[in-house]
Design brief:
Elements (H helix, E strand, L loop, with lengths): L1 H28 L6 H22 L3 H24 L9 H12 L2 H6 L1 H4 L11 H20 L22 H28 L2 H25 L6 H7 L2 H11 L6 H32 L4 H31 L1 H17 L5 H15 L4 E7 L1 H5 L11 E7 L2
Antiparallel strand pairs: 1-2
Helix pairs in contact: 1-2, 1-3, 2-3, 2-10, 2-11, 3-4, 4-7, 7-8, 9-10, 9-11, 12-13, 13-14, 14-15
Length: 400
């Protein structure tokens, strides 16, 4: 069964890639621009690759969820590229293909909204969260029904085509309510992640930190970019794939324990960048407005000051951030530094060995520590003239 599941996962990934390639070829052949639908290709591709890896190696339900959502997204790419490039007569069945696109368009988002609810083990936190899953299903079905029976979302996507199925008047209100229900699913899923984090063990908390870190970084990148431009497709294509990548790292447990260091480094560099940008702007403003220096001289001087302050400021900020957010690493660094300072004046081998074991136990917290002390004669390759000394001494300690 595991081999069959792995084979199915890789087959679905191949199918998704082929559909995306077909959509890209159709769009390029029809001289379409890189629109919202084509912009989904890199995002859906990352979700599909992570889903295949997770499903094939662990069988986690999140892998299959990512594959299902990516498959629907790939079909959306193909159908929109097929229907949007024609006025209705050049390619047969363009209106029905467009209708299929609008029918499937509302499925992807609720599936992705379930990710926080199922992360990281692919299971609900408890049976009490099943109503959230049913709400997601109802949201999807309601969107599909309103789109299937009326022009609720067809004309806004395909202005040159006519909706082939309009049994009733446009059900815009019902469609908007279904979308609002999908947002409620996302809010509830985020709440479930908070509950799971409070109850989780050490390893699961690290996994949740990976997901939260990627989500916050992606949101900040898009929000900051939105202050400067209304065209956010490049930022979306770069930032949003960080979320499935973090899910893959967390579930596959690749460099899982580096998350605390990654968070502290990100915070430190963000703070340093903000301080230096503010300092640079202030110095340029002071030199050009108050002191009446030439703008080129002011910019050069401000650049030199910012460059000179970068490393000292980074070290100070990094220590402060580690002391607050990465306390384990900060305490370990302090322990190692204190041991190195004591080692300079140490002459007694037994005292050094005891101090070394204490430092390792405090900094690393291992379950077992062994110190092998090699005699001087063995180290230089000579034999003692007196009684033979043992070639090695081993002291073993266990740390609870």
């Amino acid at each position: 069964m595991p081999k069959q599941c792995a084979r199915l996962a890789w087959t679905l990934l191949l199918l998704i890639v082929m559909l995306m390639a077909a959509g890209l070829v159709l769009a390029l052949a029809g001289r379409e621009t890189w629109n919202d639908s084509l912009a989904e290709i890199p995002v859906e591709f990352v979700f599909a690759v992570v889903g295949a890896l997770v499903a094939a190696r662990t069988g986690n339900r999140l892998g299959w969820l990512f594959l299902a959502a990516s498959l629907v997204g790939a079909v959306d790419v193909v159908t929109q590229a097929y229907a949007a490039r024609t006025t209705g007569a050049e390619l047969p069945g363009a209106a029905w293909v467009a209708w299929t696109f609008t029918l499937l368009l509302g499925i992807t988002a609720p599936l992705y909204f379930l990710t926080p609810l199922l992360f990281p083990d692919g299971r609900l936190p408890s049976r009490r969260w099943w109503p959230v899953v049913w709400l997601a299903i109802v949201s999807v079905l309601r969107q599909m029904v309103t789109v299937a029976l009326s022009d609720a979302n067809f004309s806004s996507n395909f202005r040159r085509l006519r909706d082939p199925v309009t049994f009733v008047a446009p059900l815009g209100t019902a469609f908007n309510l279904a979308q609002s229900a999908g947002l409620l699913v996302f809010v509830a899923a985020v709440g479930s992640m908070i509950v799971r984090f409070r109850r989780a063990g050490t390893e699961q908390r690290l996994q949740l930190k990976w997901f939260m870190y990627a989500t916050v970084v992606a949101a900040l990148v898009i929000l900051i970019a939105g202050e400067f431009t209304n065209y956010l497709l490049p930022e979306f294509e770069i930032a949003f794939p960080l979320i499935p990548a973090a899910v893959g790292v967390a579930i596959l447990k690749y460099r899982l324990y580096d998350i605390d260091r990654l968070i502290s480094r990100t915070l430190a560099y963000a703070i340093v960048t903000g301080v230096l940008v503010g300092l640079y702007s202030g110095l340029v403003l002071l030199a050009t407005t108050v002191l009446r220096f030439h703008s080129t001289v002011a910019v050069a001087a401000a650049t030199l000051v910012a460059a000179a302050l970068f490393n000292p400021l980074r070290r100070r900020v990094q220590r402060a951030v580690d002391r607050r957010f990465n306390r384990v690493r900060y305490d370990a660094d302090q322990t190692v530094a204190a041991f190195a300072a004591r080692l300079r004046d140490a002459v007694d081998l037994d005292a050094v060995r005891t101090d070394l074991l204490a430092a390792v136990s405090t900094a690393v917290e291992p379950a077992h520590v062994s110190v092998w002390t090699v005699s001087v004669w063995t180290a230089v390759g000579l034999r003692p003239s007196g009684p033979a000394e043992p070639s090695g001494l081993a002291d073993q300690f266990r740390v609870a």
